[in-house]
Amino acid sequence: MPLKLTVPMDSTSIELDEFNEVLKQNKYDFRNQDQIPEIARYFNQLNNNKKFLVNFLSDQLKSFHSSAKCDFIAPNAFVLYKKKRYKIRAVIWEPRPNLESLENNIDFEVCHDHNFDLLTAGYFGPGYKTRCYSYNSLQINGTLNERVNMIPEGTFSLSEGELLFYRSKHDIHIQIPPDSLSVSLNCIFNDKVDIPQYQFCEKTHKICRYLHSSKSEFLIRLSGVVGDQNFVDPLFSILNNNGSMHQKAYAAKAITQIVPYERRQVEEIISNFKNPLLQDLFKREELKIGSTYDSTADC
Ligand SMILES: [Fe+2]
After folding, report:
1. Which residue ranges make up each domain of the chain?
2. 163 and 177 in contact (C-beta within 8 Å)?
3. Distance from the CA of 84 to the center of ligand 1, in angstroms?
4. pLDDT for 160-218, tens place per residue?
5. pLDDT tens digits, residue range 123-162?
6. Cα(195) to centroid of ligand 1, in Å?
7. How far is the CA of 257 from the centre of ligand 1 (A)?
8. Cα–Cα distance for residue pair 231/255, rounded to 1 Å
9. Looking at the domain that runs over 3-211, which CATH code has it been given?
10. Measured in angstroms, how far is the CA atom of residue 165 from the centroid of ligand 1?
11. Ligand 1 centroid distance, CA of 196 (Å)
């Protein structure tokens, strides 16, 4: 199950600056999951502060016509603080009476994992409900249509004051809209942007979609479409040296678009890696550039 964190009864309220300072002073290692409960203790204290978000929004409204607006990553989510090691964001969850209108919506009714660790707290309202599963990413290739051993872990509510910790490429969840408008605070760290988030079919337990392509993937695919000869050497370098199978596959396709006579060499390189994910991704990219969905895996 996602770690349902129980922090000691603590009504202490701290400011965002204080939270950041505590993390800095204690030199917490975000990769060490044993330290998450300690980080959660201070995150809970930040979550107790019901003024800092109001003040943040007030500042945003006051500077509404300037260019210094906050970083909205979606209409319902914005970044409050961003550093290399972690970022803090607030997410607004609206009650939605009509789930049919939510097709392809990442927020609700999409069964997904994360490619980052996520510590989250219910800040305001009854909070979304979430059905959870876990899986072992070391036991899969990560190909579309691949069946995953999804272990049911129960349903939780992120009501005000509750804390959950979703582990990167380990926890899977599907969010159900809250009964009334709710806000959660997120602390995100250990991004692995080279591995996409997966969407799973809850009935077939198969990976049916890659979510949120990275900027690097767009860049590689764009280079294939633009098709300048100067792109070929850097693309071969990505194919040969990059650690991401996704980026390798898209580079391979881009090369064959720009210089079709290099196809045999590209296929040989891919074959030599002996990696089922790389082979599958290249095959799919050959059939359809930008392919991220397999309808046969979905239900
Ligand atoms: Fe999620």
Report:
1. 3-211, 215-297
2. no
3. 21
4. 999 999 999 999 999 999 999 999 999 999 888 788 999 999 999 999 999 977 788 89
5. 999 999 999 999 999 999 999 999 999 999 999 999 999 9
6. 15
7. 35
8. 8
9. 2.60.120.10
10. 11
11. 13
Cβ burial of 157 (10 Å; 0-12, 13-18, 19+) is middle
Buried-exposed string 173-207: b where 16+ CB fall within 10 A, e elsewhere: bbbbbbeeebbbbbbbbbbeeebbbbbbbbebbbb
pTM, whole model, 2 decimals?
A: 0.90
Question: Tokens standing for 171?
Answer: 């926890």
Measured distance CA(113)–CA(166) in Å, rounded: 9
CB 185 within 8 A of CB 158: no
